[in-house]
Specification:
By secondary structure, this protein is α+β, with helices and mostly antiparallel strands. Helices cover 17% and strands 31% of the residues.
């Protein structure tokens, strides 16, 4: 079970209200309070519903062989000190080294009488995320076991489709998660901690709950029904017995249920499962941009309200955004007429837009609002996206940069890029800007994570090549009444990123 760590607090208020003007109690009398009054619409029992649905919910167990890391020979380090490297283990190099058996436990549910089963991808994904487990065993409520085949999986949505050989199997139907309301009753059936079929009940606590702030599937149904490790892949049912969600995650400071369980909505899952059943990869819209939220300092540096829109950090050449003319530093405000907010991110809106459709995108560029028409592309596979992304490297220069022409504004010491600095930082010949030679640990720059060796490429979207350029941009921001400046920063081979730095700290 995937889970995120969080902290939740609740305050319960009860008792009779009291009129401050008359002293008359506004509550019911004591005799009425002692009577048990059913809540309108609440079921008197979940027993019949649970008995009908439980046979279609299955336990899923997986096994795979994983390599065992060879323990370091105490003499290896001794010989390394003298430049002697130990001979490689030929078995490990050939993949024939020692292994051990690892496994996982989770849940799933049958969606057809011939044995198609929906579950979470992370249950059947191999170590490292690039492969699958060696064996998947499905156990029914009557303890009948089947070996399952993996029909398809989709890491982006964390969904997978399995198949067992059977006929006239019990199965459940999809429901309409778009009609679910906060406060509706639900039940969850699954395999928490490997205990076997377990039923929990609760209500829908929230809809479209985001926990990562990015991606096409960061929109969960939240419930207070107990969801624990092992419930992953199990169904969330409405009171008609239809599947409205797939239990996938929980928020907890301990890893155990604290009443914040999360399920993938059925409306998001159905297209993915249907595509996997056809042997296809699910299609998702794609712009080809890296984005940043508009936090308070970045928004102030741009003269825009915070939490309204997203900043384009980089544009991928040859993709939809580049073809439409989007640029680094543009702020995307709306997608096809829908405002971009923390609850409706660019990633979410575009991923759920039909591939090939042309839509209007409102942006702010250099303080002016304009509309760009973009033909939405198809999102590449996760492997292709990972290849596009550069990994961050720690700054570890061969020699110390010269400390000439320092500037202490913003709590940073800055210097131009001369040949010695370029060599020390291993910068490409086309990189221009100024280098952070030191950071005051008590400064706003330090709070935002800037550090020695970072390269400042622009300030308030003006390219800088000298310390004087930085000072001029800061002076212009102060003259305009801005309380922060927006800097484009490059670190090692990591993608460039915008950082808002507060002035006058």
């Amino acid at each position: 079970m995937r889970y995120a760590y969080g902290v939740a607090a609740a305050l319960f208020l009860g008792g009779a209200a009291f009129s401050m003007t008359t002293g008359e109690t506004l509550g019911v009398d004591q005799q009425a309070q002692n009577q048990v009054v059913p809540v309108p619409g609440a079921p008197s029992s979940f027993a019949d519903l649970s008995a009908r649905l439980a046979p279609a919910v299955v336990n899923i167990s997986t096994t795979q062989r994983v390599p065992v890391r060879r323990q370091m020979d105490p003499f290896d380090q001794f010989f390394r000190r003298f430049g002697v490297r130990p001979a490689p283990d030929s078995q490990e190099e050939n993949g024939n080294g020692p292994t051990r058996e690892a496994g996982s436990l989770g849940s799933g549910f049958i969606i057809s009488p011939d044995g198609y089963i929906v579950t979470n991808n992370h249950l059947i994904q191999g170590q490292g995320g690039n492969d699958t487990v060696d064996e998947v065993i499905v156990t029914m409520t009557d303890r009948t076991e089947y070996e399952a085949r993996i029909i398809g999986r989709d890491p982006a949505s964390d969904l997978a489709l399995l198949k067992i050989d059977g006929a006239n199997l019990p199965y459940v139907n999809w429901g309409d998660s778009d009609r679910v309301r906060v406060g509706d009753w639900i039940i969850a059936i699954g395999n928490p901690y490997g205990l076997g079929g377990t039923v929990t009940a609760g209500i829908v606590s929230a809809l479209q709950r985001g926990i990562t702030g990015m991606g096409a599937y960061d929109r969960y149904i939240q419930t207070d029904a107990s969801i624990n490790r092992g419930n992953s892949g199990g169904p969330m049912f409405d009171m008609a017995g239809n599947v409205i969600g797939i239990n996938s995650a929980l928020i907890s400071p301990t890893g155990a249920s604290v009443g914040i369980g999360l399920a993938i909505p059925a409306e998001a899952a159905i297209p993915v499962i249907e595509a996997l059943k056809r042997g296809e990869r699910p299609q998702r819209g794609y712009l080809g941009v890296a984005l940043q939220d508009l936090d308070e300092d970045i928004a102030e540096g741009l003269g825009l309200p915070k939490d309204r829109g997203e900043l384009v950090r980089t544009v991928v050449p040859g993709e939809a955004a580049a073809a439409a003319g989007l640029r680094q530093g543009d702020v995307i405000l709306t997608i096809d007429g829908i405002d971009v907010t923390p609850d409706a991110t660019v990633s979410y809106l575009i991923a759920n837009t039909e591939v090939g459709s042309t839509i209007p995108v409102d942006i702010v560029r250099d303080g002016r609002r304009q509309t760009v028409m973009i033909t939405v592309g198809e999102r590449p596979s996760e492997e292709e996206l990972n290849r596009q992304m550069a990994t961050e490297e720690e700054f570890d220069p061969d020699e110390e940069p010269e400390m000439d022409n320092l500037d202490t504004q913003l709590g940073m010491m800055l210097q131009p890029i001369d040949p010695s600095v370029r060599r020390a930082l291993r910068l490409d010949s086309d990189v221009t800007g100024v280098v952070v030679a030191g950071v005051d640990p008590n400064s706003a720059a330090a709070e935002k994570g800037l550090r020695r060796g970072d390269v400042i490429l622009s300030v308030n979207r003006r390219r800088v090549t000298s310390v004087a350029d930085v000072a001029e941009a800061i002076a212009a921001a102060r003259s305009a009444g801005r309380s922060s400046v927006l800097m484009l920063v490059k670190r090692g081979n990591a993608p460039e990123a915008f950082v808002g730095i507060e002035l006058d700290r």
